[in-house]
Write a structure and sequence with these properties.
about 190 residues; alpha/beta; DHBP synthase; nine-stranded mixed β-sheet; 5 helices; about 20% strand
């Protein structure tokens, strides 16, 4: 695992893209603070920049580094869920502008996957996570279903977990506003 993490770190530090396993589906990722790297993912996915992406963090204590104010409800949700949960927070900060939604919000998931946690912790910055497919196509359920196009477009593909079945369901998404009120975006 260390060799794979080290290789990913090299790619991320150079502004490259990776194809990697997450706690939901296989993802395409990059440094979430690097606008050129984020632009590469939009190009690979053939996705409009108006559709923002999720970023991953290794621990909830890092949320204040990327969100102006973390609503109290967010802490309760993070502690109480046992399945992957993405929370959309108002007022993102310290991130590439093209990863932030037009309304200034950012979608963040605290990962519960050994490889992801170790990678993000070692990198020290959030990593973009978007499903490993062209925009509009269904996300692949297993690594072997990822298109050759996607694999050729990224700078590095992680060699771990490729034979394993990942949880094939994207995370639940809840959007919080500054008052702590919420709306369920995806169950």
């Amino acid at each position: 695992m260390k060799r794979e993490i080290d290789r990913c770190l090299e790619i991320l530090e150079k502004g490259g893209t990776i194809l990697y396993p997450t706690d939901t589906v296989w993802g395409i990722g990059c440094d979430a603070t690097n606008p050129a790297a984020v632009e590469s993912i939009y190009r690979i996915k053939k996705r409009m920049e108006s559709k923002s992406m999720i970023i991953l963090l290794d621990h909830e204590k890092r949320l204040p580094d990327y969100v102006v104010a973390v609503p109290e409800l967010a802490w309760d949700l993070i502690k109480s869920v046992d399945t992957p949960l993405t929370i959309i927070y108002p007022k993102a900060k310290n991130l590439a502008s093209n990863v932030i939604a037009e309304d200034g919000s950012i979608a963040i998931r605290i990962v519960n996957h050994e490889f992801c946690r170790k990678l993000i912790k070692a990198y020290g910055k959030p990593i973009v996570s978007t499903s490993a497919n062209v925009s509009g196509d269904p996300p692949p359920k297993v690594f072997n279903n990822i298109s050759a196009y996607i694999i050729k477009q990224v700078d590095y593909t992680v060699h771990l977990y490729q034979a394993e079945l990942q949880q094939v369901k994207p995370s639940r998404i809840i959007k919080l506003n500054e008052n702590g009120e919420f709306r369920i975006i995806r169950k």
